[in-house]
Amino acid sequence: MKVRVRRVSAEDVPVAITTEFIKLESFLKLANAVPSGGMAKNFIQNGEVLVNGEPCTMRGKKLRPGDDVRFDGVTYCVRAAHAD
């Protein structure tokens, strides 16, 4: 029997990217929301991932700074990495 533990977060989790965009599947791995691309694929195809409040089933959805991804009770905010 599989048991999924849902994380509870009172805050948004910012995740910085260094490119113009990142694909949804890669973003979930970068944010450590999932341990593998295969798991990301399954969650996305099952409609368990929201992008900007809407269910998204496209693994290759391009995310840009300012987009929000909600998965497993946590909201991840796409942010641009600042070059100092």
Automatic annotation (TrEMBL):
<dbReference type="InterPro" id="IPR014330">
    <property type="entry name" value="RNA-bd_S4-rel_YaaA"/>
</dbReference>
<dbReference type="InterPro" id="IPR036986">
    <property type="entry name" value="S4_RNA-bd_sf"/>
</dbReference>
<dbReference type="InterPro" id="IPR002942">
    <property type="entry name" value="S4_RNA-bd"/>
</dbReference>
<feature type="domain" description="RNA-binding S4">
    <location>
        <begin position="22"/>
        <end position="80"/>
    </location>
</feature>
<keyword id="KW-0694">RNA-binding</keyword>
<protein>
    <submittedName>
        <fullName>S4 domain-containing protein YaaA</fullName>
    </submittedName>
</protein>
<dbReference type="Pfam" id="PF13275">
    <property type="entry name" value="S4_2"/>
</dbReference>
